Amino acid sequence: MKNKNKSNIKKNKNNFTFSMNNSSLLYIHIPFCDSKCNYCAFNSYTNLNHLKKNYFKAIKKQFLNEIEKFDIEEFETVFIGGGTPSTMPISFYEDLFKLLNPFLKNTKEITIESNPNASFKWLKNIKNLGVNRISFGVQSFNDGKLKFLNRNHSAKIATDTIKNAKKAGFDNINIDIIYATAVDDYELLQNDLKIMDSLPITHISAYSLMIEENTKWQDDYSKKKEDEELEIWFIKEIKKRFGQYEISNFGIPCLHNLGYWEHKKYLGIGAGAVGFIKRKNFRYYTQKNVYKYIKNPISYKYEYLSPNDIKTEKILLGLRSKTGFDKSILNENELKRVEILIYEKKLYKKENKIHSYDFLLADALSEYITE
Ligand SMILES: C[S@@+](CC[C@H](N)C(=O)[O-])C[C@H]1O[C@@H](n2cnc3c(N)ncnc32)[C@H](O)[C@@H]1O
Ligand code: SF4
Question: Does the Cβ of 84 fall within 6 Å of ligand 2?
């Protein structure tokens, strides 16, 4: 079976279920960045800073609309992502948390993404507002590689900021790392690992570079290094240190992401955000264009998911992570194929759930099961 580690699942946020107390996950998108990285196709902009004030008004309007429409009582987890949430002043979050606080009484995890150049004051203030998990887009601790990626921080700034986050009270710290770039070699990645070992990090998201459309590197595959041996070695080293629970994720699991993979319901607030309402099996999309979003934050596109779509997603997401999927969703033929894969030691059964030994095979395995 072919090893497929090329899925864009990271951008394909998925579906969820209504729980008894009508809780939900919440994602809030901040579409502003201080500089644009060469590889990045996220919905993020460096020239729209003048819209920041009006953006808050728009997300407030969308948030209040959805709370009422879906009768939300509380959020299980919150994820503020981007773009670069740390580019917003603390006053923005003071106003935002005034809105969110009534729904955060039982919230287990509130994550914010940040550039690894946030000030100690910003980190301390954001922690005081109730954020308990921080995710830094470090990418590398090598200055040459950071320049190559067009990041606007240095290795020294990143290590200082991570230490500051710990001092500010964060016990749950993630760093994003990009590997399989043209400048990677054993020495560079070994040095990154050495620096990681010295820092108070609890989680790593490690992404193999994807050459994306609408980026500076579009169609330029010279920026990518195809060296499977190096990639396998690097991932093994991270796994050894942190333990792997998903194809790209290692360490203390992010509850919000686990929620997506377990098909919980979520609200998506902000330009280009995605939400899912299980009750009616639909996914909704807000306006991606920031101007259009600000003009009308409650204009949505809807996508209906058939029971078969949902089943396929459950299998795929379950096999990409430790969550697995429930055996009861399979029909007779699918069950037979799962039995074959169990016999071939590609899958295993634990109670009522089916799990994969190798998350990298998830795409191929789920294709085979649902063929
Ligand atoms: C929204 S960004 C993280 C937060 C913040 N914007 C930052 O970069 O500091 C999410 C992460 O996706 C990863 N990423 C984005 N584009 C990628 C690509 N083309 N290939 C691989 N990883 C990518 C990066 O590791 C990035 O940190
Ligand atoms: S990787 Fe992060 S900082 Fe860089 S452009 Fe994308 S969203 Fe902005």
Answer: yes
Contact (CB, 8 A) for 211 and 221: yes
pLDDT of residue 334: 97
pLDDT score of 325: 95
Distance 130 CA to ligand 1 centre (A): 24
Q: 9-261 has which CATH code?
A: 3.20.20.70
Choose which residue among 178, 209, 210, 256 to substitute to test ligand 1 binding: the one with the highest number of ligand atoms within 8 A of its C-beta. 178
pLDDT, tens only, 226-263: 999 999 999 999 999 999 999 999 999 999 999 998 88
Question: For the ranges 8-22, 65-79, 177-191, 348-362, which has the lowest average pLDDT?
Answer: 8-22
Q: For CA atoms 144, 229, 39, 117, give the dihedral sign.
A: negative
Nearest-CA residue for ligand 2 atom 4 is 37
**DSSP state, 265?**
-
Contact present, 74 and 38 (Cβ < 8 Å): no
Whether 62 and 111 have beta carbons less than 8 Å apart is answered as no
Locate the domains of the chain by residue range. Answer: 9-261, 307-371
Q: Is the pLDDT at 14 greater than 80, yes or no?
A: no
Nearest ligand to the CA atom of 137: 1
Cα gap 42→157, rounded to integer Å = 24
* β 282-285/301-304 pair status: antiparallel
**Which residue's CA is minimally distant from atom 5 of ligand 2?**
36
